[in-house]
Design goal:
Blueprint (H helix, E strand, L loop, with lengths): L1 E2 L3 E10 L6 E2 L14 E2 L21 E11 L4 E12 L3 E8 L8 E12 L4 E4 L4 E8 L6 E7 L5 E7 L4 E7 L8 E2 L3 E3 L3
Organism: Kitasatospora albolonga
Protein name: Calcium-binding protein
Length: about 190
């Protein structure tokens, strides 16, 4: 931020919708600002969104615009908006279970799980139905997973599919997220194939 006027409070960056008075509240840290200016102020700002500490509505997830504001000594302020968009996202979680363990080569392995999403208003995780989730497999001795198939969760967030047992390895679910919800990966469930 650069200003030719003296400021009362160093400038801040904030998120807004439907006009710059419709803001998403957050906590701010800043530094490198000359006392009162004028001059150049390098803002190092961190936004903290913690629904367990501050009330947040689920509708606040999604796209927000970015703006900056400074209050001047003697009165007045300046607000500048930029054509920048950020997405505030609710957290998601996945579980996994692959069975039977051990499995017989050539037979069927059933992989189940569930996708849930943080509900900021109840402060709990709730079913997130209809999501498109990837089933991934990592053979024993390998360091990377490969997508085997994609499955839609049912209305309760439940996931279920079958695969043929071919080799020992680890199964997991991966959800890639969207504009209101962050991505997530389940833990891995290893199945020995004999």
């Amino acid at each position: 931020m650069t200003t030719t006027r003296k400021w009362k409070v160093p400038g801040v960056v904030f998120l807004y919708r439907n006009g710059t008075d419709d803001r998403l509240w957050h906590s701010i840290d800043w530094n490198d600002c000359p006392d009162g200016g004028p001059g150049v102020c390098d803002i190092n700002e961190t936004m903290y969104f913690n629904p367990s500490e501050w009330p947040m509505r689920n509708s606040e997830a999604g796209a927000w615009k970015v703006a900056a504001e400074v209050y001047f000594k003697g009165g007045g302020r300046d607000v500048d908006t930029k054509n920048l968009t950020v997405h505030v996202k609710r957290n998601s979680r996945l579980t996994v279970n692959a069975s039977p363990e051990p499995a017989v080569k050539g037979k069927t392995i059933t992989v189940t799980g569930k996708v849930t999403r943080a509900n900021w208003e109840t402060r709990k995780y709730a079913s997130y139905g209809g999501r498109h989730v990837s089933l991934q497999f990592k053979p024993a001795g390998s360091t990377s997973y490969t997508t085997v198939k994609k499955v839609y969760a049912n209305s309760s967030g439940g996931l279920k599919t079958t695969v043929k047992a071919s080799k020992t390895g680890t199964w997991r679910w991966v959800y890639h997220g969207n504009t209101t919800t962050g991505p997530s990966k389940s833990s891995g469930d290893k199945v020995v194939v004999k």
